Amino acid sequence: MVLPASPNQISLKDIAEEKLGSSAGSGQYFEDISLKGLSVDSIDDFGFYNGDTLIGPIDYPGTPNSAAPYAMSEFHGYAASLWPASAPGSITTNETFIMDMTADEDLGGDVTACTVLNMSLNTTNRTLSWFFGNDADRSFNDAGDSTESTKNTNSNTISYNGPITSLEARMVYTNLSHAYSGGGNGFTSASYAGRSWAAHNQFAHMDGSSIVNNGDNAASFVQKTKLSGTDSVATRTPLSGSYGYKTMRTTTGNCSIGMFATSEEVGSTFEYSSASIGPTASGSSIYWQIRANGSELLTIYNKTNGAGEVLVASTLNSPTT
């Protein structure tokens, strides 16, 4: 909603309701509404009672003018955005591993490499925390030593304004390079070929263990779409499209959306399976977005083309000594 334009009258309660994102209902009321708090971020705006339960005092980011002197008239025509100007935050740790993980298996087992946007919603505090999980899962070298790797980014927390009645997420990708192989000593086989996937989980975080057996099995509540299409041994034309908007949770808890490369388990020596996908070609990119209440759109992160940046799942049944 939008506050009335001048010369219509507005009150502190009107401004508080706009920032809260809803009117006070039966048994609800505001307490200690601060004009300075409404006008200046990082200062509490008001307390809010839901029955006998005090919520706050809370600072709701967003203001038409943070400079003194503060005036209610500055809020004429004001509309609070759900996502504050400071969102979504920044990545300072392990950014280079986003869409750049390799799961390399030398004992013939299936492996998964993935990048996942993992999110945590807290409807009491009105925060959404997120990080990218970058995982290479179940890989071993020919000596039997684990080569698994997890390179998660730092976490960022967004304090949002107003209630979330719907939350969706999507990935949009352009010119992703992707290739698949499989076979054995002197032959190729589509049934051995690795695969690529887009997936989401409305109720939990995901990692490399969320999709296994070359995508034939997945953890509870994981929903997935095969990006590689019909199994084959081939380097495909660049992949462009989108995955989403996919429904995320609106209650407190975790949810996620991401991309996966998987390989097939192979049984005999020198048999192999692999898949790769990523924004490594010129003009390629992938970005993650979330959308609240059907219209409040926020881009979390955009990964543009980088030399050699791909998810790789590679299995080889190597001879052992």
Give a brief rundown of this model:
With 321 residues, this protein is mainly β. The chain has two domains: 12-75, no CATH class; 95-316, no CATH class.
**Nearest-angstrom radius of gyration?**
24 Å
**What's the total number of strands?**
21
> Which structural category do the helix and sheet elements fall into?
mainly beta
Succession of helices and strands: HEHEEEEEEEEEEEEEEEEEEEE
Work out the helix count. Answer: 2
Give the end-to-end Cα distance, rounded to a whole number of Å.
Answer: 70 Å
Helicity level: under 10%
Biggest sheet overview: 9 strands, mixed
Describe the protein.
- The protein has 321 residues and is mainly β.
- It has two domains: 12-75, no CATH class; 95-316, no CATH class.
- It has helices at residues 12-20, 35-39; strands at 28-31, 46-50, 53-58, 102-105, 112-122, 127-137, 149-150, 156-159, 167-184, 187-188, 195-201, 211-212, 217-218, 222-226, 234-235, 239-247, 253-262, 272-278, 285-292, 296-304, 311-316.
- The strands form four sheets. Strands 4, 9, 10, 15, 16, 18, 19, 20 and 21 form a nine-stranded mixed sheet that branches. Strands 5, 6, 7, 8, 11, 14 and 17 form a seven-stranded antiparallel sheet that branches.
- Strand 9 (167-184) and strand 10 form a beta hairpin.
- The longest helix has 9 residues, at 12-20.
- It is elongated, with a radius of gyration of 24 Å.
- The chain starts with 11 loop residues before the first helix and ends in a 5-residue tail after the last strand.
- The relative contact order is 0.18.
- The model has no long low-confidence stretch (mean pLDDT 92).
